[in-house]
Design brief:
The chain starts with a strand and ends in a 23-residue tail after the last helix. By secondary structure, it is α/β, with parallel strands linked by helices. The chain has a domain of 138 residues: Rossmann fold, CATH 3.40.50.300. It has 8 helices and 10 strands. The strands form 2 sheets. It has a 6-stranded mixed sheet with strand order 6-7-8-4-9-10, with helices on both faces. The chain has a 4-stranded antiparallel sheet with strand order 2-3-1-5. Helices cover 33% and strands 25% of the residues. Bound molecules: adenosine-5'-triphosphate (ATP). The site of adenosine-5'-triphosphate has 14 residues, from strand 3 and helix 2.
Length: 266
């Protein structure tokens, strides 16, 4: 059984090359973590005193303003960052999908990149060999798959990356935004694969600014604010508190299917 537990965890980033004058300006800003500048080296407190318990079957959306700590929290949950203070325990194999381009080599072909990216996400060579035709077909990239990745457009790269990501069998799936940049028809196709991917994942944490995406994949949510967990609960309850209105309200009485009234909280 997979699980992630975090106890009173904080993540600090000391900034050795910051200028004190620009720091004063930053202190007036609304976004970002808390900046402590009393010592000689300013420290950004990206996460502060986080306690969380996630278990098998959890489908958790992650919301919050820019710089609230969502990406840093995902990296803590992935075991990429160790807590500066506090503890974390991750049971299960993590597939971190933070940047669709990570693990891709521009100089090798699309086919070779499918293999490399799959291995990077924890699959074996054999598993990837059995999936490569299906992935190739999904991407609709045809002969381009034999060309080096550097010849691809942004949308073509995303197609390739989405093909690989949606083919894996993750125990713990951590998704950061960036699942965009493809045309609408392809996105509709990718959504079905994403749904299947989430269904076979043990545990999902998904940072996204779109209510629609969150409603499709998650039933719980964490609201991050200035490095703190401001709220952790049911998706609807958390989104309502975060946005100041209920995004599912219009359909509540007559229909269980949510019709959403807007995107993002920013
Ligand atoms: N590598 C780093 N070095 C220094 N500070 C960092 C680093 N990564 C994040 N931070 C700081 O930590 C805080 C949280 O950033 P994080 O990227 O986790 O926010 P986020 O909620 O994912 O934001 P966004 O929605 O804009 O992507 C911010 O104040 C940011 O400046």
């Amino acid at each position: 059984m997979v699980s992630i537990d975090v106890w009173n965890a904080s993540v600090d980033f000391p900034i050795f090359d910051a200028k004190s004058r620009s720091l004063k300006k930053l202190a007036l800003g609304k976004v970002g973590g808390k900046i402590e500048s009393e010592g000689r080296v300013p420290i950004i407190e990206a996460l502060h005193d986080i306690t969380l318990s996630l278990k098998d079957g959890d489908r958790v959306g992650l919301v919050g303003h820019n710089g609230a700590g969502k990406s840093t929290l995902l990296r803590l949950l992935a075991g990429i960052y160790e807590p500066t203070r506090g503890h974390s325990r991750i049971i299960g194999k993590v597939a971190p999908v933070f940047d669709l381009g990570v693990g891709m080599d521009p100089e090798i072909s699309g086919y070779e990149n499918i293999m490399i990216r799959g291995l990077f996400l924890g699959m074996s060579r054999k598993q990837m060999e059995s999936r490569v035709d299906d992935i190739a077909q999904f991407t609709e990239l045809g002969d381009y798959l034999q060309m080096p990745l550097r010849t691809y457009s942004t949308g073509m790269r995303v197609r390739l990356a989405l093909g690989v990501v949606t083919s894996i069998n993750p125990e713990i799936l951590l998704l950061d935004e960036g699942i965009g940049a493809v045309d609408a028809a392809f996105m509709a196709k990718a959504r079905d694969r994403l749904k299947d991917l989430v269904a076979r994942s043990g545990l999902l944490v998904f940072a996204n600014h779109s209510d629609e995406f969150l409603a499709e994949f998650c039933d719980k949510a964490i609201w991050m604010d200035e490095g703190h967990v401001k709220m952790f609960g049911g998706l609807r309850e958390v989104l309502t508190a975060y946005k100041g209105f209920d995004p599912f309200e219009r359909t509540h009485q007559h229909d269980e299917t949510p019709v959403l009234s807007g995107n993002g909280g920013e």
